[in-house]
Design a protein that fits this description.
The chain is of the alpha+beta class. Helix content is 36%, strand content 9%. It has two domains: 38 residues, no CATH class; 46 residues. It has a two-stranded parallel ribbon with strand order 1-2.
């Protein structure tokens, strides 16, 4: 497994469950100690990198989802990356 855990993932109902799986397979289990977080979730969205690559209907649906998340209290912010979109 890559240290960034970007080569495979787990599906879990709770963050604590995903952290338990990560601890079980990691070479450094302490990296995956679940902690309780307070406050609204913060979401960074790479919109510019993908806007040119998706169908308009998908982009509209994604924008609607972001508005719903923000309306539910999430902090949604557009972010950018220096990497080409195909590498993200």
């Amino acid at each position: 497994m890559a240290p960034s855990i970007d080569t495979f993932g787990v599906i879990a109902r709770r963050v604590q469950d995903a952290a338990a799986v990560a601890r079980a397979v990691a070479d450094d289990p302490a990296r995956f100690t679940a902690t309780e977080r307070t406050g609204a979730p913060r979401l960074g969205v790479l919109t510019a990198a993908f806007a040119r690559q998706v169908e308009p209907v998908m982009r509209d649906h994604f924008d609607q989802l972001l508005r719903r998340l923000a309306g539910a209290g999430a902090a949604v912010a557009e972010v950018s990356s220096d990497r080409p979109a195909e590498l993200l």
